[in-house]
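Dear support,

Our group has been running a series of protein-ligand predictions, and this particular one with 6-O-phosphono-beta-D-fructofuranose is the one our PI (initials K.S.) wants archived with full inputs and outputs. We had some confusion internally about which version of the output was final, so please treat the block below as the authoritative record. The input we submitted was:
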Amino acid sequence: MARLIVVSNRVGVPDGNARAGGLEVSIRPALKKRGGVWFGWSGKVADGDPGPANTIIQDNVSYVTVDLKRDDYEEFYNGFANRVLWPILHYRLDLAEFTRRDLSGYFRVNNVFADNLEKLLRPDDVIWVHDYHLMPLAKTLRDHGRRNRIGFFLHIPCPPPEILAALPNHERLVPALCQYDLVGFQTEIDANNFSRYLADEVGLKRDGADGFIYDDRVVRVGVFPVGVETEAFSRLARRAVGSAFVSEVLASMVGRAMIIGVDRLDYSKGIPERMAAFERFLNGFPDWRGLVTYLQITPRSRTDIAEYADLGRIVGEAAGRINGQFGEASWTPLRYINKAHSRTALAGLYRSARVALVTPLRDGMNLVAKEYIAAQDPDNPGVLVLSRFAGAARECGAAVLVNPYDPEGVAIAINRALSMPLEERRMRHAANFRVLVENDLRHWAERFLSLIEDGDPANDASLVAGAPVGRPRRIGNVEAPMRPSAASR
Ligand code: F6P
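Confirmed final output from the archive:
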């Protein structure tokens, strides 16, 4: 078997720190199982010369990281990656702040990554590149004569070509993805959008149902919805629910039902909109006042970017307003905290929460939704309220699906989830859990890697954009409001 080299901006160096973000959660187990190299940014910014790459070897994985120069950090990470690509790929043209300087910083850091990578590479290594920070990496490696099999997976959404084409210099950036052998997306919506871009904007000819001809090469486009370690996470949650930490949290709830939300502080997650929906819920369903506590765990992220700092203020104010308006001396309706929690702590909290609110305005997949399902007690499961605009909604259609832009609809869904009879909760949970066992994290990684390695993915029907991978399996819609029930968990 060829050696695997994973490349991503963030690297899950085993340092014991709890970090936020689905990418690390997805890659770490896949790489640990197979062994190989994980290359990327150390997370550190060097004021002078960043020096050579740093290597840590643990088990059968080498973690190789480089520091970024201050200019690179500003222009590549804060600039083009997170002030241009992140908003545009999340359909938020209104938030994109393009500058030519940031664009050239983005290409410069991709070149630095390629130069460092070259020092490690063997001709038969398989390279798997992750996410929007590194779109042109394969092109740089090909320009240097590298002929390795290289795959790319986009963890976040890919918008329609009408939005992609509004990205200044998109002609230089997006077609560069054709230098990969395989380009993978979370959902068929994303893969279709990209395929439409290649056909309509770039004018590429198709090669079979899933490929495009670009110069003298063929790039395949596929759908690979990322999963979680469903059964392992379920076991973790079963253990964690009895921990001192979870017991203490539950004791502090004094028998009230817990609603949980866990998101990085990011505008794509729809946190102010969710809080507005919670406010509507307390207004519209007053019988629940004093009976529920909403715990929102929101580690800060990308704090050097103005939108993120503003969001921190807006969310903090909303939480204060709701507690001021509805709180009692003996009841805080909303607990809003920025501290990151370990996976074990989260697993235990998920299992203890009667409802999870996962209501992003747009999200590639959202692994909190999947982990919440995995963590539930199948005999007495909680209910997932899930945005229809999260990639996870394609597979987890048995959740209560909502439109996060409709606060009244979300308020009704919260009431419905809290009031849902046990039989219905069990049925919805079992349907979702089954899907997550069938498409767990191992399956995702193995399928992607086998398709890069085979070099002939034509036999995998699910590669075809539009194939029935992860179609929503809707069991029920949000319906008429119900009264709070006495049912407790
Ligand atoms: O999933 C998108 C992503 O950018 C991942 O690459 C990363 O794990 C997560 O969001 C956190 O973002 P950042 O690396 O900017 O802190």
